[in-house]
Amino acid sequence: DDPDAPVTTLSGGEKQSVTIARAMYFKAHVLILDEPTNQLSVKESKYVFDFVKSLKKQGVSNIFITHNIYQVFQVADRIMVLSHGRKIADLDSKQTSPEDISEMILKS
After folding, report:
1. Ordered mean pLDDT values, 10 residues apiece, the chain (108 residues)
2. How far, in Å, CA of 50 to CA of 45, rounded?
3. What is the residue range of 101's domain?
């Protein structure tokens, strides 16, 4: 809540928000988020998801990298599945499920 607080004193979710805000300050058109909710609380993760969704509405593309399949469905329009560094699927998120994705990964 203190705009003058050093970044080192912020929570994990607040630090993620600062990182995203910095990218937006420089007018990024694509935001690459690598495990953005790793080690965040549920509340902090929700804050990051809400922020990513608001950026999406503003036309900012997001590449959201995560091992948590359920998180992908909260923010993604398209899902690209990688296994051992190789693309095994490129799907519309509305036409697949976490279970389908899990099965693809297990079979690869």
Report:
1. 82 77 82 86 86 88 91 92 92 95 90
2. 9
3. 77-108
